[in-house]
Structures are given as structure tokens and as C-alpha cells.
Amino acid sequence: AQSVTQLDSQVPVFEEAPVELRCNYSSSVSVYLFWYVQYPNQGLQLLLKYLSGSTLVKGINGFEAEFNKSQTSFHLRKPSVHISDTAEYFCAVSQGAQKLVFGQGTRLTINP
Amino acid sequence: KAGVTQTPRYLIKTRGQQVTLSCSPISGHRSVSWYQQTPGQGLQFLFEYFSETQRNKGNFPGRFSGRQFSNSRSEMNVSTLELGDSALYLCASSLLAGSSYEQYFGPGTRLTVT
Fold first, then answer.
1. Mean pLDDT of B76-86
2. Beta strand pairing status for B87-94 and B104-105?
């Protein structure tokens, strides 16, 4: 069975600093990878996804992620964060027609 | 284009009761998935419906059921509620079935069981 590990449950950073949220998955076959963001009292919004092709994926709000097959990782990065990026971030993996499997989430807190 | 809508947004029920939650997908979307979100278990897949047929089911007891109508609207039902069913229930719609298609999430229904 697939699984996703988000290595940090909470990440505090200062405004305008860079951030990396780490995600590792377990699968021996080709997978699709996703990052979602959840703002308070809202549903999830897709930030970016990797289906195939270039391993560097650019998403919305200045976020990007790099797929590393050998390390089974899909870390999310942003060069300069803003207060408005405060939210919970979820990494997810799936195979083809199968369901999404989510990580436990990383709470990103931006301090002024 | 209107997003995914879920009703009601908040619900309080008593243990042993049953509840029905509703989800209206984005117009033109034919696939609807349901997820349960709790602080302890995180986001867990409940089931997926496409063209009124359940395509996928997660590891939940039979008390959790769902259906999809011909207009793609979906309902999920939980019978004999337990305290542990308190959660945020999220619905997501996508154009077609299969996780390569982007899922658009609704705001969720927060269910509290007392």
C-alpha cells in the first residue's frame, strides 16, 4: 500500500524567508504526486501536481516542487514566503485510477 | 463557474442518530469523492462515485455509505453515529474519474457527534 510521510508537522519561518516542506512517499511503481493547501475553515486547494515529464513542477502562489524518484521525495519550496501563506499543506500520492493517499500535513506559520 | 458546494456546513448530532451530507460538484464534473478529516487520522478517503457508480471505497465500516444521482450530485450517509465520527467531511469533484484529473474540494461539512 502506498504511504506518504511529511517529515515536519510544523514549520515556523519569518516573512520573506525561503521555506521547504518535505514529503517522502513509498511506492515502487510510477505515481502521481500532489501538494494541496488548506486555509482555516476551508477545503483543499491544489498547489501543483506531478504526473510525468519535467521533475521540477511550478504551481500557484510562487510554489514549486521537485520530484526525485531515487529518493522517493517530492519537497515543496518557496523562495520568499508571505503572511498569507500561513496554512496547512498536504502532500498526496496516487497511482492511476486509485485513490489519493494524503500525508499528515505540515502547518506552516509565518512570523512577521 | 460555481465551485463545489456542500450542505450543511455545520451539523450537530447525537450518538446513535444518522446523518446525510450533500455535495454538488462543479458543473460538468462527473466524478465525486468523499474524504474524512480528523486531527488524529488526517485525511482519509471514503469513496468515489462516477456516473452513479461507486468506483473506489476506502477502509470504513458499512455504516458509511454514499450515492450519486444522474446530475452528479452526491450524498453520503452515516448511520448509528459514534463519537469518533466527529470530523470534517470533504467532497471533491473532478471532470472524470482517475486521480490524474484535478480534484476541486468543497469547504466541507463539520459534523459534531455528542
1. 97
2. antiparallel
**A27: nearest Cα among A67, A54, A63, A85:** A67
Q: Which residues of B touch chain A, with CB atoms under 8 Å apart? A: 4, 33, 42-45, 48, 55-56, 58, 90, 92, 97-100, 102-108
Low-confidence ranges of chain A (pLDDT < 50): none
In this structure, are residues B14 and B113 in contact, taking their beta carbons and an 8 Å threshold?
yes
d(CA A17, CA A43): 26
Query: B55–A98: do the CB atoms touch at under 8 Å?
Result: no
Handedness of CA A54, A55, A61, A62 (dihedral sign): negative
Give per-residue pLDDT as tens, B6-62: 999 999 999 999 999 999 999 999 999 999 999 989 999 999 999 999 998 999 999
Q: Note whether B56 contacts A104, CB cutoff 8 Å.
A: no
* Interchain CB distance below 8 Å, B100 and A51: yes
Contact B13, B30 (CB under 8 A): no
At position A50, the amino acid (one-letter code) is Y
Q: What pLDDT, on a 0 to 100 scale, did the predictor assign at position B82? A: 98
Chain A residue numbers with beta carbons less than 8 Å from the beta carbon of B54 are none
Contact A46 B103 (CB under 8 A): yes
Is B114 a residue whose pLDDT tops 90?
Answer: yes
- Mean pLDDT across the stretch B95-104? 80
Under 8 Å between Cβ of B13 and B81: yes
DSSP designation for B29: -
